[in-house]
Design a protein that fits this description.
The protein is of the alpha+beta class. Helix content is about 20%, strand content about 35%. The protein has one domain.
Length: about 120
């Protein structure tokens, strides 16, 4: 989410124009999304950082808010099922509709686990 005027040709935003960053975590990006990007976005003073990840076939949203005195993110809330949030804008979202439901076996395979041994 940005405060900048819409420009369909624009490919980047200055940090002071960004109010919210949302990352979708994949197995390949998990470490970066949970640690590196969390630190870098806080250093850029972006007020809100959310990341969405799969938890046994369901979408889970981790919400962080910038603590201005420390310049670090503080965990605000974790949403499962439904996301309802008044900031940085009012939103209500059914998280179960973000991804198709998978069986436990499909979920294990998606995470690189052998369903016969795990």
């Amino acid at each position: 989410m940005t405060t900048a005027a819409h420009d369909g040709d624009r490919t980047w935003f200055a940090p002071d124009e960004v109010r919210l960053v949302i990352e979708v975590v994949s197995p390949e990006s998990a470490h970066r999304d949970r640690t590196v990007k969390l630190r870098k976005y806080a250093e850029a003073s972006i007020p809100h950082y959310w990341y969405i990840e799969d938890e046994d076939g369901a979408s889970v949203v981790h919400v962080y808010e910038l603590d201005e005195p420390t310049g670090a993110y503080a965990p605000a809330v974790i949403f499962r099922g439904t996301l309802k949030r008044p900031v940085p804008f009012e939103i209500s979202l059914d998280l179960d509709k973000l991804t198709p439901l998978r069986s436990k076996q499909e979920n294990r395979l998606a995470h690189g686990k052998d369903p016969l041994t795990h």
